[in-house]
Amino acid sequence: MNEKRVLTIQDISCVGQCSLTVALPIISACGLETAILPSAVLSNHTGGFKSWTFRDLTDDMPGIEQKWIDEGIAFDAIYTGYLGSARQIDIVKHIFGTCSKPGCLHIVDPAMADNGKLYTGFDMAFVKEMAKLCAAADYVLPNITEASLLTGLEYRESYDEEYVTKVVESMAALGPKTVILTGVSYEPSTTGVLVYENGKQAYYQHHRLPKGSHGTGDVYASAFTGALMHGKSAYDAARIAADYTVKCIENTVDDPDHWYGVKFESVLPSLIRELI
Ligand code: PXL
Q1: Is 118 within the bounds of a domain?
Q2: CA 19/CA 90 separation, integer angstroms
Q3: Is there an atom of ligand 1 within 6 Å of 82 CB?
């Protein structure tokens, strides 16, 4: 009766273990009804493949939204990831207004950049629009590259706590209730997430594997959403999602052919045990 219904809006990269092919199975495995709104369809993601097809679904979104309004369909949480166009962001904000149940949680992963660079296909006009979506969110989950772009702060590869504090405070000043800054690493063997809420910071540090992996931001945000919808605090959800993401990477690093994503499927039981 009381099962929660989550909507996730992001692209379908048909191959590559990211965005919807990660979010739908992970959130469903957390025992939550999961609806999807694809923002675009790509043959494969843009991070390391030679080329890809890209079908922008912006024009389909208002019609889908209208059907849901007509049917009285609304959600307990809306989680957004990679969006296909700057124009789409306005539509997503509109969906926040029309398809949210009272108390609906709005979780925005501004998936658009990493390692100091925007992903292929994005520009500063998109970043400007994404900052507006972050303002409408309860929870935002940027990495340091995304947060620096969104706030106009200088991007730094190495940094101290003072810089990170400036980053989370500037993100919070955009308007979201809670900031979860991912990939905060002060030394090579560890990394972590910083949760900033009500003016207070809490850092969860964990083991850092030597190899970065594609799609881990999506795995992280999906597990975070699943945990949050089980009533976990932002900090506990951030910790559970971090532990799960580390397990996914550990499960993948020994397989050099599996460079395009992480093998999240076979370690799902560890996430489910934390929640159910
Ligand atoms: O995981 C982020 C992501 C999502 N969707 C597409 C991507 C990427 C990262 O490169 O290319 C299409």
Answers
A1: yes
A2: 20
A3: yes
CA angle 6, 200, 209 (to 5 degrees): 65
217 close to ligand 1 (CB < 6 Angstrom): yes
What is the predicted pLDDT for the residue at 211? 76
**CATH number (domain holding residue 131):** 3.40.1190.20
Q: Could you tell me the distance, in angstroms and rounded to a whole number, from the CA of residue 78 to the centre of ligand 1? A: 19
**SS3 breakdown of the chain: % helix, strand, coil, rounded to 5?**
40, 25, 35
Residue to substitute in 22, 36, 39, 45 for testing ligand 1 pocket (most ligand atoms within 8 angstroms of CB): 45
Q: Which atom of ligand 1 is nearest to the CA of 42?
A: 12
What is the DSSP pairing of strand 33-44 with strand 5-15?
parallel
pLDDT tens readout for residues 216-246: 999 999 999 999 999 999 999 999 999 999 9
* CA–CA distance, 138 with 134 (Å, rounded to integer): 8
Is position 275 within any domain? no
Ligand 1 centroid vs 46 CA: distance in angstroms? 6
Question: How far apart, in whole angstroms, are the C-alpha atoms of residue 10 and residue 82?
Answer: 5
CB neighbour list of residue 161: distance below 8 Å, 6 or more residues apart: 186
In a domain, residue 268? The reply is no
Q: Is residue 270 part of a domain?
A: no
Domain that holds residue 161: 5-260
Total tally of structural domains belonging to the chain: 1
Residue 123's SS3 state is coil
Q: Is the pTM of this model over 0.90?
A: yes
Whole-angstrom Cα distance, residue 137 to residue 257?
Answer: 37
Ligand 1 centre to CA of 2 (Å) is 33
